[in-house]
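INPUT
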Amino acid sequence: MRHNHFTFEAKQKNVFIGMMVIGLISLIWSYFDNTVPNHTRFWTNFLHNAAFFTGIGFAATFLIAAKITAYSGWHTVFKRLWEAYSLFLLVGLGLMGVVLVGVWGNLHHLYHWADVKAVAGDPILKGKASFLNKYWYTLATFGFVGVWYFFAQKFRKLSIEQDNASLDTRYPIYLTAKKWGAGFMPIAGFTSVAVIWQWLMSLDAHWYSTMYGWYTIASWVVSMIAITILMLIYLKSLGYYPQVSKEHLHDLGKYLFAFSIFWTYLWFSQYMLIWYANVGEETVYFRIRMGEFPILFYGNLVLNFVLPFLILIRNDTKRKTGSLGFIAAIVLFGHWIDFFQMAKIGPYKSALEHHAAAGHGASHGEATHGAVVADPHAATTAPKAAVHTEETAKTGHATPAPADAHVAHEAHEGLTVASDAHATPAKVDVMEPDNYFHYNPDLTPGFAFPGFLEIGTMLGFAGLFLFFVFGQLTKASLVPTNDPYLEETLHHHV
Amino acid sequence: MSARVSPLREPLILGNKNYHQITEDICAPTERAPSRQWIIGFMIAVAGLGLYLFSVIWTVWNGIGSWNLNRTIGWGWDITNFVWWVGIGHAGTLISAILLLLRQKWRTGVNRAAEAMTIFAVICAGQFPIIHMGRVWMAIFIFPYPNTRGPLWPNFNSPLFWDVFAISTYFTVSLLFWYTGLVPDFATVRDRATGWRRKLYDNLAFGWTGSAKHWQRWEALSLVLAGISTPLVLSVHTIVSFDFATSVIPGWHTTIFPPYFVAGAIFSGFAMVQTLMLVVRKLFKLEDYITLQHVESMNKVIVLTGTIVGVAYLTELFIAWYSGYIYEQFAFYNRAMGIYWWSYFGMMLCNVLSPQIFWVKKYRRDLWVTFFMSIFINIGMWFERFVIIATTLARDYLPSSWSYYSPSWVEIGLFVGSLGLFFTCFLIFARIAPVVAIAEIKSILKTMGDQYTGVNALNKKHDDHDLHTEDAHGHH
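OUTPUT
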């Protein structure tokens, strides 16, 4: 087939290296932006992108396995793209390894649970300590992602072997791949949620939601589909993939639509149930996001639901590269924003609390901390919150809440944190939801919304991802030449 | 659809059929006198229906007091049965709508019966909330009509009320979808019938002539209904899960409930489809249309959804511990180690552990194993709902109100009797309507018939261009 071998041109290499340089500069720059202490801007940026792009590798591996298991044929023409993404898991392992080193070396304050002093004074974190610890984090990062990579390279190896195999209508190599594919499904199902709890959910160390894992996986899958669409459009513009027709793009568009709706379904279910039940331990998560990070909260929904829903519901928009590419780019950025809100807000909050605590001496600091911990509970009228506050009180880390909350506000005065309640400190009653502790990031770039450094970091990681993926594409024919579904995919018709 | 078929795909129609034979085979059960097995089955089902009616009358006459519900456990077998039946009613629309959108050709063998099953299961499900009202004549209160009683009813904030809409909408759309598919098939039966049967099917077929315009509108309508059904089928069990998850009761309030309920519903629905199809293919001699390949595909869906449910169970269990919230922790400790421990282990065994047997191809294609497992799974899914409802309610926040519940004979009669209602409907359906969609199975003959694909076809692969069918329905 013509153009079936990809050439990674010097020009493209230079662009990607340029992107990586921008990313590196952005990272270094953000390291020295210490408006939020503990280099939190740098570390959250790193974690945000590392988790996002590693997850795309996971989503690709998962879909490869699912497609093999389900006898799917139509995607075969571009499956080498997914194979290339899936191998990025190895790079992702290295990237998340950097965060892991930070956990071990106490180089950052991303995870509240990694702070020994904070955990000692916090009964909730103490209760989670047998899961939220360095060892589990290491197992999830190296062990689980390592297993994913093992499967990814297995699929890749078998897929290339199939290219060179002699024609046997029983396709023994493919059948081997099917066994591995089916085996990967439950492994992926169980490990992925554990990894997500460790990497992302534990950023808001007190908070919990059973939906969180699946929600995050959905975000990864949508991003992976969006990247695939953009990549195919780009490669076609270079003259590659003449076999990829409107029919394939139409189906990918349907996937983008379907998974966007699925993501929204999970988003809504999680949000609605937490809103409806109104349990303080849970609502605090959305309260902060809605009240103090509205750009992220509403932007997330507009980019990932409203726009793809309105644009992709039509038939023709899925078949035109212009509209499909446009919405794929929006959705890709949108899910990057989704990960931004996952990765930024918890560390932002805990970094400020930690700093406030550290700055006021040990005993005072702990009392302050206790107040901040108790604070969200004071914001709710649900009975469970009272129970929790009582627990905190029993362990002696929270003195009467109003006074303490005041201390907390004072402590934050020197930082970028302002409080609405601060203007009238004497009248603060934290039992009133309106006076509840405000972090108020206002327009702090890098937290309230992505600043230039975040965009730069994204470009850097994207450059790395593309450099890796293009490198992988050169290593095998673009369209598999001997696949059992080749005839089907070449004649695919929606 | 392309006529190029991968050599890895197994044929879905066996026996070297042509279009005429398909018509003959599938219409035959509606044209001959009922077999002895059918009559025996029907008598048992009607006996069950009788038990059901008796139990309903008993309940209405004597009031809900004839059940063993108490102040602590206000929902028992009734709501368990409701959720169980609604869950079963998911597979039909999943097969007909979602698998249609996913272009899964094996759906054609089982979609008709699965849709019928959906409708009857939803009918059974709908009974229980109404009976639970006790004063069934007050059922009008669930409808949002302008009333003179002040702004008291209905409570739009209640998921129980959303249920009324979700389920009635789902029922309506499923019924339309099912009947739309039946119209051309009724016409086929009509064209072969004489006498009063011809008259009956003439009415049922709505004057279908099979003109190009009819087919065109029929296909457009099917796609529109599929598009509407897809979000609907997800919404129904999502809202059923809201009945529990919006509360602040530990063990009920958890965010994973919506997708986990939907996965469980598909799981139990497919199990019920298996139970029915295994009987139907044998009873009506449809082994060439409901092949081992169909059985295997459905078993794969079962092991997939069973494992998804397993991930959800363990997620719930883990997060209960992780939350650090003692009541949540107790709720799950109580499930596994409390008074109803046996139902929890029954659930785990039937739903998560035993379906793993389907990792082995031999068992996926073994009819007895499949039949046994399909029943086992539905027992497990019933236990799941019982665990969620009764186990959770039995241990309240206040130990002084802790209680135990076991059903009265009336409640057992209602459940067993509802099976009678279901099978009565299904057996009548299987007599009157073609249990396999004739028009739709014909549409895949030229791609998935065993003379065109699989081992037989390999030697003459792609040399016959007449096999290409751009528009599959143009062949009637």
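end of record. The radius of gyration of chain B is 24 Å.
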